[in-house]
User: Which sequence fits this backbone?
């Protein structure tokens, strides 16, 4: 199976993951401050959980995938620093509890540690691909958010996502893990949608988290 087929097989789920009114508001400059603050603080927590997941996935990766995963790990650690810097500049407090949606995403990543490598690498590809498409949909972005749109729409990030796609495809070629990988893909799609929704609904309730 080619993982790109998953996007075609589940267009509704994928659209929910990669398009959202929050991203339209980032493009138009109509985003409520509470939504952006909630997204930033919760995504910082998510990225910290992702770093743990990726380091464990790297530990069981085949030799051929070590370069892309090791590169990704270094990038994710640097990204945590970038979040901290941006939060400081925007006056956003990062010390906030995990929202139930962020906690559900972390639990899913932890559960993947007990799944096949193929399911894990497919999930990683899906969540990175979702961010690439989601932020592309917000491009070029209102000046207030342009740096965030730029962060996930660089050619380097697209190359990283392509590298993960290649790794996922070869993991799926060599085993009979397609069904579990597809299930992981669908869970990622749902969690990504929930994550946008969590931040967006913060603008309606006015809370941070
Ligand atoms: C990513 C992210 C992409 N930052 N947040 C969510 C909820 N999903 C995916 O990960 P990265 O490391 O920022 O590219």
Assistant:
């Amino acid at each position: 199976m080619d993982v790109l087929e998953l996007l075609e097989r589940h267009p509704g789920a994928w659209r929910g993951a990669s398009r959202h009114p929050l991203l339209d508001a980032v493009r138009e400059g109509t985003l409520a401050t509470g939504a952006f603050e909630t997204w930033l603080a919760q995504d910082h927590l998510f990225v910290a959980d992702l770093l743990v997941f990726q380091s464990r996935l790297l530990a069981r990766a085949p030799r051929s995938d070590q370069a892309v995963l090791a590169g990704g790990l270094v990038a994710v650690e640097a990204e945590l620093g970038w979040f901290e810097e941006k939060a400081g500049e925007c006056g956003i407090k990062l010390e906030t509890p995990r929202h139930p949606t962020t906690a559900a995403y972390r639990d899913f990543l932890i559960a993947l540690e007990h799944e096949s490598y193929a399911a894990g690498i497919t999930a990683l590809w899906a969540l990175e691909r979702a961010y690439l498409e989601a932020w592309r949909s917000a491009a070029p972005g209102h000046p207030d958010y342009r740096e965030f749109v730029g962060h996930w729409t660089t050619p380097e990030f697209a190359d990283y996502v392509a590298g993960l796609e290649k790794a996922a495809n070869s993991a799926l070629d060599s085993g009979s893990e397609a069904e579990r990988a597809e299930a992981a893909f669908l869970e990622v799609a749902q969690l990504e949608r929930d994550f946008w929704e969590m931040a967006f609904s913060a603008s309606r309730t006015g809370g941070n988290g």
